[in-house]
Write the structure tokens for this entry.
Amino acid sequence: MLPDATAIASLLERAGIVGAELSSEGGPGLVVRVERAQAGAVVQGLKDSDHAFVFLVDLFGIDTGEHVDIVYHLRSIARDEELFVKVAHEYGSDLASVWETHPAALMPERETAEMFGLTLSGHPNPKHLLLTSGSAPMLLKSVEIRTAEEVRNR
Amino acid sequence: MSDARDTVAHAGWLTADKPSLPDEIPLTLKRVPSGVDEVMTEHLVVNMGPQHPSTHGVLRILVELDGEEVIACESVVGYLHRGIEKLAEHRRYSAVGTLMDRGDYVSGIHNEMAFALAAEKVADIGVPRRANWLRVLMGELNRIASHLVWYGTMGLDTGAMGQFLYAVRDREDLLDILEDVTGQRMMFNYVRPGGVLNDLTPRAEKKIRAFLSTFDAYLDEHHALLGGNEIFQARTRGIGVIDKETAIAFGLTGANLRASGVSFDVRRDRPYAAYDEMDFDIPVAESGDIYARYLVRIEEMRQAARICRQCIDGLPEGEHTAKVAKVLRPPAGEAYAAVESPRGELGVHLVSDGTDRPYRMRYRPPALFGLQAAEAITPGTFLADAVAIFGSVDVVLGEIDR
Amino acid sequence: MAIDRFTGENSILFIRSEQLFDWARRRSLWYMAFGIACCAIEGLMHASGPRFDFDRHGVFFRASPRQSDVMIVAGTVNHKMAETVKRLYDQMPEPKWVIAMGACASTGGPFREYPNVVMGVDKVVPVDVYIPGCPPRPESVQYAFLRLMDKIAENTEERLAARRDSDS
């Protein structure tokens, strides 16, 4: 289930991706951390490789306090392997869509972009998915929920 | 695969960057030659929902129609967005179960189970064997209940009304059982990190056995009522075909994926709870049309009853929960746990920072991916088929919007 | 006829037209099938089902707001949905009533801390009956309808009394 880290590392090198960090300690599995500019190429490369990571399980973000981590959870059905590609995005930066590689990313990307205040590019329908336009990016740690006072005096 | 991309790009006229408020529906009625003499026709934009009998919740679908044929289709969600993921960051671990219940509200046990599994992974809690068997038992009963809702509403989408009442009748028996065991008809809050809330009483066991003794005959009745109906078959055979490549490309899981020929089931391939001790079949169909999805779900109900029988006969002795601290403070870490909910692979990606509240809880909604796929294959079908297609992928808006 | 048992044969019944119409209205309240969230499964699906049969009270669902008397707001209303709720309420013809079903529709429920959630549908439309619960049992929803029927009857009496007072 856990893919061989060295095999993945050499796969990425052959695809021309440099500087990828792989780790499986303390995380949900094998985590591949790459630069923002490489994300699309990495996802495409993993899909085209003989590991065949053709299935996008999930695409979401985590606000680490300093930046937003975008996580691509990929799965290979043929080899029954899973890995997580993590990409660090500055607050307010651009999220390049990977929908042409994985059409499954269409709606999750819209949601992730609006929830974390990123702009979505290369997407056929970059509208907000869940929130009305003009809402704050709700999943950022800096955005507060209502206080007990506000709730009591509804 | 290229079809999927072309379909999405074709919906371009709907995708200008406008806010999705009701008043902003673009009223560009394109005049096109109808092909009959000199008559010009117009493409009509029809808005379905969010208040609509067949949108399974507050789903809004905009369709551009050329007569009866759907040219472009866009779904608008977010009418039930309540911030489950955000609120989970402000609740203790024992209270997040109540939030998860209200996500996919038709199958609460599976939602709670996904979160409990993720919390147990992060906190490294072992679950007693009896608790795992109880989780499987309740989960499969909930699966039957959820599929009955789907079965009832799928018929409604194609115009049949009788089977809905039969489905609700059987669901009432199931909710009686679930209420007996968990105390609630819908928001169970039963599966907690470490085990389950309480044990099975002899009275509940009797009810379960009574239900299981008649369910197979009732299921045959349901299948004959809807699936054996000529009109239903004409409405669903060959309609809404999702082939294998499209299904994988759009991230489909669960019955939707298995009806397209890919045999992936979280219960068998990523076993959790006591599923590795259970003996059950996983139905897979090849045609990928609505009828295939219907058949897969009917068979899943039968298999779920089979698992329930094994559970109730072979329930091991032991504790129904591990000893877990009242205020759970797991060490910092990250984990992903998935369950096979009636809609597909329901995953929870949990990030813990060592405090008593989750740092980030991501709820992977299987119905969202189903909705995307339905939206992509609808252009080219008729409007009535569009309704049936959106019904067949079993969307529950509570899960999509969270 | 059965009514002869009460009135005796060949008798004449007097009733004010408002009382007759309100009796007809409250004995056949048709609600708009408008389930937003979880409460829809309990209060709309199961309450109309074979066990908790709603039809015996004369209550039936209509798909269109233009054909319904009651709007049961079953579920959480958020900013995106609030517009639609208001619009549907406006589309209903008079006389109309609103039942706020569940904790979410009454006060925002378990999600009231989230800024996108409207803390109670009474901020958007006037509510006649509130049903507590998460979700309320189908019997609670039926009881709410019975209370609504009483409320309609009270209103009739009040209106008639007010007119009587203003006439005299």
Q: What stands out?
A: The radius of gyration of chain A is 17 Å.
